[in-house]
Amino acid sequence: MTSQKEYLDKMAEMVVEMEDEEIGDLCREYLKEGYDPEEAIFNGLIKGMNEVGRLFEEEEYFISDLLICSDAMYNGIDVLKEKIESYGENNLATAVIGVVEGDTHDIGKNLVKLMLEVNGFKMIDLGKDVPCEKFVDEAIKNDAQFIMMSTLMTTTMANMKKVIDILNERNIRDQFIVMVGGGPVSESFAKDIGADAYSENANEAVKVAKSLIKNHEN
Hints:
- One of its GO terms (biological process) is methylation.
- One of its GO terms (molecular function) is metal ion binding.
- With 218 residues, the chain is α/β, with parallel strands linked by helices.
- It is built from 9 helices and 5 strands, in the order H-H-H-H-E-H-E-H-E-H-E-H-E-H.
C-alpha cells in the first residue's frame, strides 16, 4: 500500500513535471485508499505549484510551462473536490476577487480563490486586468462582503488604491472588507492605501479572511 506522503510527493512532482493527463488517475487512486482530499490539495498539488512558481521566478520555467503545470493542478483538483464536503457550500461569505487593471498574472489569485472556495467562501472571479470600477460594481451586484485584489507588478499597485478611492467616493467603503496581496504588495502598503488586510500567500489569506469575518460580525 502506498503511503499518504508518497502520494502527496508524487502529486507535487506531477504538477512540476507537467503531467496534466495522468494526474487525475493518481488522485483517484489516492481517494480509493481513503486519504484526505483536502490534504492532497494543500500538501500535494499546491505544494507542487509553489515549486513551479519558484522555477518560474528563477527563469527555469516559461509562461507556457506555467500554464501546463496549472492545468495539471486543476485536473487534480477537479477529482479531489468532489470528496470535500465543504467545497461549494459557500456559506461563510461572498468575495469578488481579481487581478487589478494592467496586470495579467493570475496564478497567485487563482490559488487564493481555490483555497477560499475549499474553506466555504463563495468566490466571484473577475479574472485579470480588471477595471477599478468593476471591482466595486460586481461587489455591489453580488452582495459581497469582501473585495480581494492582487498584482505582481509595481506599476499597477496604484490601482488598488483607486478601487478604495471609488468606494470612498460612493460613501460605501464601510460595506466591504478589502484585502490585497501579490509579490510587490506589503502590509505597510495595504495600510497606506486604506485596505483592511494584506496576505502574503494563499494559506494566510484563508486565516485572515476568516478572522475578518468574525470581527466584522462582532
